[in-house]
C-alpha cells in the first residue's frame, strides 16, 4: 500500500470516528441564549421556572439537554411518569425513562414535578378493564409504588389531573364511572400516606378563567379542604393561544389561593395559527408576558412551560393548523417570547 493511500484511509477513519463521537455526544452544543438564564431571574422573584422534558430527546440531543440545565430550575417529565409509561402491566413498573430525567435533574440541581398519578388519558388498557374494587386497589398501589420510587427526588405531584369536563360536570373517566367522585379524595389520602413530604396538587386544563369548569373545580377543592383531605395546591395548565388569557385569570387563581392552597402554572404554552409571522410572534410574546405577570401577582410557587422549543411541542403535533407555541424556534433560537418571559421575570 502506498503512503498516500495509507494516509487517505487514516484520514477517512479519523473523520468517521469524529462523526461517531459527535453522534454519541448527542450533536452540537447549544448556542448560548441572550441575557440572564430564566432560572436566575425567576429565583430573584422567588419562583421556580420549569419545562416539560422529553426523555428520548434529552438522551440524544446535547443542545436540548444543555438548554434545560441552563435555563430551568424545575422539570416535569412530559410523558414518562404517566400510567401507561410507568406501569404498563399491573404491578410491572418501568421506571427507566423517568429515572433518566430525574438523574439529569439531579445533576442540574433541579426539582422534579411528578406528572401524573390519576388521569383518564394515556392510561393502559388493563386499568380500564378493572371493576370497582380492583380499580380502587390498583390505583392505590400505583400511587404508593410510583411515589415511593421518587420520594427522594419528586417534591410535588399532580395527584389528580383533569377531573372536570368543560361543561362543569365531573369528567366521566373510568375512575369516575367505577368509583364515583370519591376517587379524588381517595387519591389524595393515599398520596399523603405514600410521601408525607410531597406537595399534592390537583391539576386542570381550561380552568384559567372563571367559567363552569373552574367553578366546579372550586367547589370540589373547597369540599376537599372542608373534609380535611390533604391537598396542597392547584395547578392551572394554561395552554393558551392568541385569543389571550381570560381577563379574570388572576381573580380566579386568587379565589383558590384564598382557600389556603398553593398555586402553580403547570403547562404554559401559547399556540399560534400557522404560518407564524412577526406580528403573531409579537402578540404571542405579550401573552407569555401576561402569563408570567399573572403568576407573580398571585405569588405562585412555580411556572412550568410545556416544552421550550417549537421543534418539540405537543401543540404542533396534535392541533391541526397550530404550532410555534414555545419560546424558542425549531433551531433553538430565541423568539420574542423568550425575551418577554425573561423581561417579565426580571422586572
Ligand atoms: C401531552 C404531551 O405533551 C404529549 O406528548 C402526549 O402525546 C399527550 O399528552 N394536559 C396534560 C399533559 O396534563 O400531560 C398533556 O401532555 C397535555 C395536556
Automatic annotation (TrEMBL):
Belongs to the glycosyl hydrolase 10 (cellulase F) family. Keywords: Carbohydrate metabolism, Glycosidase, Hydrolase, Polysaccharide degradation, Signal, Xylan degradation. Its EC number is 3.2.1.8. Signal peptide: none annotated. GO terms for molecular function: endo-1,4-beta-xylanase activity. The keyword tRNA-binding does not apply. SMART domains: Glyco_10 (SM00633). Gene3D superfamilies: Glycosidases (3.20.20.80). It is an enzyme of class 3 (hydrolase). This is Beta-xylanase. It comes from uncultured Solirubrobacteraceae bacterium. Residues 32-344 form the GH10 domain. It catalyses: Endohydrolysis of (1->4)-beta-D-xylosidic linkages in xylans. GO terms for biological process: xylan catabolic process. It comes from the Bacteria. PANTHER family: BETA-XYLANASE, GLYCOSYL HYDROLASE.
Amino acid at each position: 500500500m502506498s503512503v498516500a493511500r495509507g494516509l487517505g484511509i487514516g484520514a477517512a477513519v479519523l473523520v468517521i470516528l469524529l462523526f461517531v463521537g459527535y453522534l454519541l455526544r448527542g450533536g452540537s452544543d447549544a448556542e448560548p441564549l441572550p441575557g440572564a438564564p430564566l432560572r436566575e431571574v425567576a429565583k430573584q422573584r422567588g419562583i421556580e421556572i420549569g419545562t416539560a422534558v422529553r426523555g428520548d430527546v434529552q438522551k440524544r440531543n446535547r443542545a436540548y439537554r444543555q438548554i434545560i440545565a441552563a435555563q430551568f430550575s424545575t422539570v416535569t417529565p412530559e410523558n414518562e411518569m404517566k400510567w401507561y409509561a410507568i406501569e404498563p402491566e399491573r404491578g410491572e413498573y418501568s421506571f427507566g425513562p423517568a429515572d433518566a430525567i430525574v438523574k439529569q435533574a439531579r445533576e442540574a440541581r433541579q426539582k422534579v414535578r411528578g406528572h401524573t398519578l390519576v388521569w383518564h388519558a394515556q392510561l393502559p388498557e388493563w386499568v380500564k378493564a378493572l371493576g370497582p374494587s380492583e380499580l380502587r386497589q390498583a390505583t392505590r398501589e400505583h400511587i404508593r409504588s410510583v411515589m415511593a420510587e421518587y420520594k427522594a427526588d419528586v417534591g410535588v405531584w399532580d395527584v389528580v389531573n383533569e377531573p372536570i369536563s368543560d361543561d362543569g360536570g365531573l369528567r366521566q373517566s373510568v375512575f369516575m364511572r367505577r368509583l364515583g367522585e370519591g376517587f379524588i379524595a381517595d387519591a389524595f389520602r393515599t398520596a399523603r400516606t405514600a410521601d408525607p413530604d410531597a406537595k399534592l396538587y390537583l391539576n386542570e386544563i381550561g380552568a384559567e378563567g372563571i367559567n363552569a369548569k373552574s367553578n366546579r373545580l372550586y367547589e370540589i377543592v373547597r369540599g376537599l379542604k372542608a373534609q380535611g383531605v390533604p391537598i396542597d395546591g392547584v395547578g392551572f395548565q394554561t395552554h393558551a393561544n392568541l385569543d389571550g388569557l381570560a381577563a379574570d385569570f388572576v381573580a380566579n387563581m386568587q379565589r383558590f389561593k384564598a382557600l389556603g392552597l398553593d398555586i402553580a402554572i403547570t403547562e404554559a404554552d401559547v399556540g399560534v395559527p400557522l404560518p407564524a409571522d412577526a406580528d403573531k410572534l409579537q402578540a404571542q410574546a405579550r401573552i407569555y408576558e401576561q402569563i408570567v405577570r399573572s403568576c407573580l401577582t398571585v405569588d405562585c410557587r412555580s411556572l412550568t412551560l410545556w416544552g421550550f422549543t417549537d421543534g418539540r411541542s405537543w401543540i404542533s403535533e396534535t392541533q391541526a393548523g397550530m404550532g410555534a407555541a414555545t419560546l424558542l424556534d425549531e433551531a433553538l433560537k430565541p423568539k420574542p417570547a423568550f425575551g418577554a418571559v425573561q423581561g417579565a421575570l426580571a422586572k
